[in-house]
Design a protein that fits this description.
264 residues; Rossmann fold; five-stranded parallel β-sheet
Length: 264
């Protein structure tokens, strides 16, 4: 089971089928049939190439959508402080109609309602692992960060990646933020994996987040998907990504902790 459904291309193989036999002496019929086959083959190739081109465009559009938040910098003229959500498809709002429906968007609405001067930056990328986050964190930190919210590790868990590797990658990300913005406030969003990953791995994975939060003096949301994970009506058909209604609950889970951080 994967947290992020991979983009796939559908390849249609078109077969011209078996050819009929023609009398050797009937060259006119043979030529006519041969011409038809050639034209049909050319037509099929054009259709196939067109379909692959459209599939590639669709894939590029999805990739662009996944990384839009990560490439959007806050308005340098704004006096608002920034809250940067750094995560995977849960942060990016995979499968939702609009990014404002993702839980960081829900949090932004609550910030606005509370009349707090913070701007949410959604730096979620679908399919991201802790290693992927580590690879792009320095680029993301080119934009100023006042509050850093870390939501990564779920894809590691579902892929059975070594707990020690995940811990080290997340710590490296945290260290990069501390080094660049020593005064930034830090928030950790906890995750869990299904019990079918084995009791030892499941418990070790669950401990990653509170342990790192305590070590780095980070505010902790114990389980991001509380009251949403495993509830069919609050998740999309994949059973993993929240619906818009589910994302509202996830946003509330985060807000319960983040509000205190912003008010400090």
């Amino acid at each position: 089971m994967n947290l992020d459904s991979p983009n796939t291309h559908s390849l249609f193989v078109i077969s011209s089928g078996s050819e009929k036999s023609f009398a050797p002496g009937n060259t006119r019929v043979n030529r006519k049939r041969s011409g038809t086959i050639v034209r049909n083959n050319i037509f099929f190739k054009i259709v196939l190439v067109s379909m692959l081109f459209l599939a590639a465009c669709t894939n590029n559009k999805q990739a662009s959508s996944d990384t839009t938040a990560a490439t959007t910098k806050p308005d340098s003229t704004s006096s608002a402080k920034t809250v940067l959500f750094f995560g995977d498809s849960l942060t990016a709002g995979y499968g939702l109609d609009d990014q404002s429906q993702a839980f960081p968007g829900v949090v932004q609405a609550k910030i606005d309602a509370a009349n707090l001067h913070y701007k949410v930056i959604n730096a979620g990328v679908s399919g991201e692992t802790s290693a992927g986050g580590k690879a792009r964190i320095n680029w993301i930190l080119k934009q100023k960060v006042d509050v850093f919210v870390l939501e990564l590790g779920a894809n590691d868990g579902l892929r059975g990646i070594s707990v020690n590797s995940t811990i080290q990658n997340l710590q490296d990300i945290i260290d990069a933020v501390k080094s660049k913005y020593p005064n930034a406030k830090l928030v950790m969003l906890g995750m869990q994996v299904p019990p079918n990953m084995g009791s030892v791995y499941t418990s070790s994975f669950k401990a990653i987040f509170p342990d790192l939060a305590a070590k780095n003096k980070m505010a902790l949301v114990p389980f991001l998907l509380k009251d949403v994970g495993g509830v069919p009506s609050l998740n999309q058909k994949d059973g993993i990504h929240p619906t818009a209604e589910g994302a509202k609950i996830v946003g509330n889970n985060v807000w319960e902790v983040l509000r205190g951080v912003l008010l400090r």
